[in-house]
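Standup notes, protein team

Yesterday: finished cleaning the Lophium mytilinum set.
Today: Cora-domain-containing protein structure.
Blockers: none.

Input for Cora-domain-containing protein:
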Amino acid sequence: MSTVTQNGTELAALCSSNNNTQVSDDLALDVFQWSQGVQVGQYYNLQQVSLLGSLPPCDLRVILAPLDIQFNYETRGLPALFKYYEFPESFILERKHSVTQAFGTNEWNDGAMCSWLHFLCKNIHIDRTSSPGNPDKCEIVNVIPNTIALRQADYSWLRSGYLLKRVPRVSANTSINGSSSSSATVQPLPDLVTLICFGAPDSLKQRCNRLLRGQLWENFLSDPYALFTMVIEELFFQLDHSAWNLSDAFGTIEHRILTSVDRPGQAADHVDFVSLHTIAKAITYLNEGVDAMLLTLEDMAATYDEKMSQPATTSAINLKAEIRHRRGLFRSTRLRLQSLEKRMSNIINLSFNLVTQQDSRVVQRDSSVMKIIAVVTLFFLPSSTIATIFGTQFFNFGDFGNGTPEFKVSSYFWIFWLVSICTTGAAFVVWWFYYRRIKRVIQKRDVARQSGV
């Protein structure tokens, strides 16, 4: 079963992506499978991909595999799993490029088909460990080791990939009385449905454990896409949990800033613009994840409509209703993120106003000091000017030997005024030419900017 686009190049690139890791059959797998006529499903913990062939026949199988984003010692068996189930090249290519949104389908000549999707979303971890100095602590923490993170930053991501494969099986011919005869009837066998999950959340494994008992799993045989709706619901819980964590972390910062408004001159000291920026960036990432899942659901619904038989069965109608419901869940999270964006915008504007208010208070205080200095200077300026002039050699005070006080002015006193007037005029002339030159340069720059040069 191969297509034109499946030439093995992406799989070969995956095997050669890390020369220090040898491709092997070893891979930890959690396998859940169900069979018609068996009351309880089976669970297997396998350590090799080749052991999948030794499992008993089944109608439905769910495989939980490690995250396929890195090729290392723990995931060295991924190429063997890709070969065993003949994964499409597009799935491996999208994995390599860490796509945010993708929903693809592929069909083979023998009637087998597969569909897949990828999930990528920002992860938000919260530290609520209280302390005497911070009883209401609620901060975003980074869980990636050996990294230096900004305040309120988490560099981890929620990643997972899912491939659903359906393989038709040959029908069995049996007679009415159980023996082969010319009056044999055809008993159609259900398609073999397999869901392979990479990096799935723990809640999905718990959900599969609950499905081991009972017959609810049979609904997935008639409509295998119902497995995707189950997966997407768990992905919604992951994304929505991150959105609530982000909202709680922002609420703490918002409360701290609002309570500081009553302390003029000190409110700006409580504004942490780095934290506000990292939270705003996280909101953008979460919005991207929500929009990606909404697009995935749209593609899934369109693909299902193309494959759906007419007239629509009850199970098909119910599945389309479930897809609409999943859309509503993600839209509700998007509405919450939009509200969070508006709150963020209000707090940022308030923070800038608080900083501006504090700066204006500082400027006002400095201007008051300068005003006092200017008043004192103006008060002493006339007397200091007169004292300076009379302290020159152009004025003589004394009795000059005859005992009578006398006051004499030098005949060269005009030189003082000549030099003073000339130097003052020269200073004004130099300032005037410099001012005109700067003004022309600014005007030329404005003209050039307006003309687009």
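Follow-up from PR in the comments: Residues 11 and 414 are 99 Å apart (CA to CA).
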